[in-house]
Inverse folding.
């Protein structure tokens, strides 16, 4: 079993920055990749950024490109999402999720952290 705990959300003004953290514990050797997703009220869940567990490959959704950076801390077994130039439309609950072998499906999720960007 893998456990995920997000932190770092909050209220920020447009143009500001936040760094989200996802603490990862448990059977981490089964993890293939980690991703950040977000879901705003009344909208579908959206993939924001992903990183392979080796840290060698990253990917970003269109809304995140050029503003957000996903990274992995090997020492502390955590995944981060640095969010810069935040916009009101970034307001959502942000979740980290783990894709495990062999399915590589995102089947383990954290509880989410609220990000609110004021205009």
């Amino acid at each position: 079993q893998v456990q995920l705990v997000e932190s770092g959300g909050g209220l920020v003004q447009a143009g500001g920055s936040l760094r989200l953290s996802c603490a990862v514990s448990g059977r981490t050797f089964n993890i293939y990749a980690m991703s950040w997703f977000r879901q705003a009220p009344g909208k579908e869940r959206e993939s924001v950024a992903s990183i392979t567990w080796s840290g060698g490959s990253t990917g970003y959704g269109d809304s995140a490109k050029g503003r957000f950076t996903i990274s992995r801390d090997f020492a502390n077994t955590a995944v981060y999402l640095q969010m810069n130039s935040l916009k009101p439309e970034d307001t959502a609950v942000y979740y980290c999720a783990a894709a495990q072998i062999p399915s590589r499906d995102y089947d383990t999720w954290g509880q989410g952290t609220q990000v609110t960007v004021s205009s």
User: Anything to note?
Assistant: The longest strand covers residues 18-26. The mean pLDDT is 95.
